[in-house]
Write the structure tokens for this entry.
Amino acid sequence: QTLRQLFKHPSPKYTLASIPKEKQKYPVNGSLLDRVSLWQGDITKLQVDAIVNAANKRLLGGGGVDGAIHAAAGRGLLEECRTLNGAEIGESKITKGYNLPAKHVIHTVGPIYSYSSPEDVELKAKQLTSCYRTSLELAVKRNLKQIAFCSISTGIYGYPIEDATDIALDTVRNFCESDTSLEQVIFVVWSDKDKHVYEALIPEYFPPD
Ligand code: ADP
């Protein structure tokens, strides 16, 4: 299945294949690179096994991507979310996708970023790492093959995009090195600025041969 076939409506504007060769941070197994891609657009349009929602602790919808996902998924999603009893920061819970083209939604609760001390920054980084790791673990546990992440915590929650992207890429890379069952991890960006950050950093974590 090609990336193009994953989209119900739009064709992908961008895939990893067009990333220029850049200096390698560390060597990577070629097959890892085949499993990640970058796409700019609306995550609610993706026809994949699971999309990851940047939710809040209540798991009952909200602004940003959370609102977009609930609006596109319909009331069924909200009803199932009511049975989940919320989630802690760094925790992830899975539901069906209802009216979305995606089969499932993984709801993860990112940290709200604020800079108060180096310890605080470290805690937020651990929590954001946990969002990615627990989402990936859930996908594997349910035997899902594709997962699409939005850029968790970098919108309303204010996490600096460069730092958050480092965490996203590092966590996915570490996970995919030991797990071989996930076939496709898609990083979904909304803004051009975020796209540029991912374009610059992906080759460091997933360098082309
Ligand atoms: P958070 O509260 O975790 O910061 P936001 O929803 O505010 O979550 O933003 C998370 C990221 O999702 C941001 O990069 C934002 O630009 C992006 N985003 C917003 N709407 C969509 C969408 N429909 N599809 C994909 N990404 C989106």
Q: What stands out?
A: The pocket of adenosine-5'-diphosphate is lined by residues 42-44, 54, 64-66, 68, 110, 150-157, 188, 190-191, 194 (CB under 6 Å). The first strand starts at residue 36 and ends at 40. Confidence is low (pLDDT under 50) at residues 1-29. The CA atoms of residues 169 and 202 lie 7 Å apart.
